[in-house]
Amino acid sequence: MKTLALFTFIDAFGWELLRKNSFLEEILSFRTPVQTIFGYSSTCDPTIITGLLPRDHGHFSFFVYDPENSPFKTARILSLLPKFISSRGRVRNIISRFYKKYLGYSGYFQLYNMPFRMLSKYDYTEKCDIYEKGGINSGASTVFDRLRNENIPFFLADWRASEDRNIEQLSKCIEEGKIRFSYLYLAAMDAVLHKYGTDSEHVRTKIAWYENEIKQLVEQAKKKYSEVKLYIFSDHGMTNVNEDYDLMSIIAKLPLKQNRDFSVVYDSTMARFWFLRDKAREIITNELRKSEKGRILSDETLHDWGCDFRDRRYGDLFFLLNPGVLLCPSYMGETSLAGMHGYTPYDKDSTAMFASTIKPEIVPERLDDINKLMHCEINRL
Ligand SMILES: [Zn+2]
After folding, report:
1. Neighbours of ion ligand 1 (CB under 5 A)
2. Which of 101, 124, 147 is the last residue of a domain?
3. What pTM value is reported for the model?
4. Are residues 321 and 308 in the same domain?
5. Which tens digit of pLDDT belongs to each residue from 94-112?
6. Distance 11 CA to ligand 1 centre (A)
7. Quick one: which of 5, 82, 222, 350 is 20 to 30 A from 268 by CA?
8. Do 210 and 152 share a domain, yes or no?
């Protein structure tokens, strides 16, 4: 009989949500808010598994202006598609699948709402599966590299598979009783929160479902292991959207030409600009300063948030919207959503959570501390 460490990651299940809902009350005696990292799951998840800040693991948003290294040189032909076809989600999914295969990418890949006629100016930043060896952009190793190197039997959820499938696989591993460490990734909550916001019945139903599934796994594990340590955490929270903001139209009206004077990626909560001519910097900066919907992030702020990237890879200037304002339309989508994340990490609704059956040896204060705790747990196996 031995110990099993069950790390369970529920995407977007933030501290506010945990505080307001009943969730595994009789099991999770320890609960604490955890400071998230600026960015989306594409930034937060590498931080959790490497323990590094974005500038050091090299992951942030998916698209960057980089015409020399763009893998989408052939995409110009797609711009011939009429908009009523090219803007359809189903069409974009098929084209995304084609590109993923054609380019040999093993990571998560989606073209979202990126304009086809400009795609050849952009590079994609998550080409590899971050959970596999060598998957991190900076070459940093992950907690899973350590488990593999040290031949510790572990379960790692497959991000391509459904929650049901992953829970079923973990249950099988527990039954065999060989694994000592588990990383169960549950991703569906994020989509429920984007669609319905944080106060919906759908959210409560989903939380109750997690409660039931996790309880069963723990019960099952207790029969096979002398000690079962359950750690549950999220990467960020979710903020209810109360307003859409069409920044794209405002920028399009400026006396500048995209990809000659400047380039930009419109994410869901921020716009990232690259300046190709000095006058573009001046005009765009002046325009953004007039906006009451967000703010330009200073170099100091980007440094504090660990997002001062080498060569300004992810943009010369970041304009971040206020919590609750959605950049819509954007390069991520054309329709509004009830919830979004990726605002200032200091907003209460952005805050992630951590909960466990025992007080952990390291109490996570920021997302990278969860990595420290995982290593601490492995040291004790
Ligand atoms: Zn999300």
Report:
1. 190
2. 124
3. 0.95
4. yes
5. 888 888 888 888 888 888 8
6. 8
7. 82
8. yes
